[in-house]
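Why does residue order matter? Because the sequence determines the fold. Keep that principle in mind as you read this record.
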Amino acid sequence: MDVLKSMWETIPPATPEDLAGARQRLLDGMHPRRRIVTVPRLLVAAGVAAAAVLTPLVIGTGPPAYAVTESPDGALTVTVNELRDPAGLEAELGAVGIKADVTFLAPGTRCADSRFAGADAAYGGPPPSGPDGLRALVNGARSFKATRVVSVREFRIDPRYIEPDETLVLEFRDNRNAQVPWRLGAWLAQAGAPVQPCTRVADSN
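Structure:
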C-alpha cells in the first residue's frame, strides 16, 4: 500500500483541460460515428432545396399556347401563340359552345381531302371559275363568314353563322415564320356529319 501511495504522489494532478478531453473521448466511445457533412455537400443540398422551391414559380411564366375570349357581341377571339395541344383548344372552344375539330400541321403538309361533308361549297364543292366565281364563293359561304383572321396570331369566330350541331374544322399549318407563324384553313362540316382524323399529305402550296 505504501508503494502505491508513493507512486500516486509522483503523478501530477490533472488540469481542467485534461479532464474535459477525457470526458469527450469517453462520450465519443459511447455513440456511433456520425456521417460527416462537408461544405460542398451542404451547398449541393441547399441548391436542390432551392430548385424544389423555385420550380413551380418558373413553369408557366410564358404566354399560353392559346386563349379564347368572348366579346360583348358574342363573337370569339382566338389567340394561337404555339401549335400544341389541339385537344385543349377544342375543349376551350367547346366550353363556349363551339363544336370544333382542331389539327396542327407541320410545314409543307395538309390534311387529305374528303375528311367530312362540308356545310357549304367552301369544302368539297366545285372549284370557283375566275375572280367572279371566287368572289361569289367567299361572299356566299358561311364558312368564310364564321371565321376571319384578324392578326398574325388571332382569328375571330362569329357563332351567328354556325348552325346547331355543325363542326368548325380548323387546320393550322406551321409556317416557321415569326412574322406569320401559321396559316389557317377553316370550314364548317354538316350537322351531325363525322369528321375523320387528318391524314397528313405533302402540300406544295
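The chain has two domains: 2-58, 66-202.
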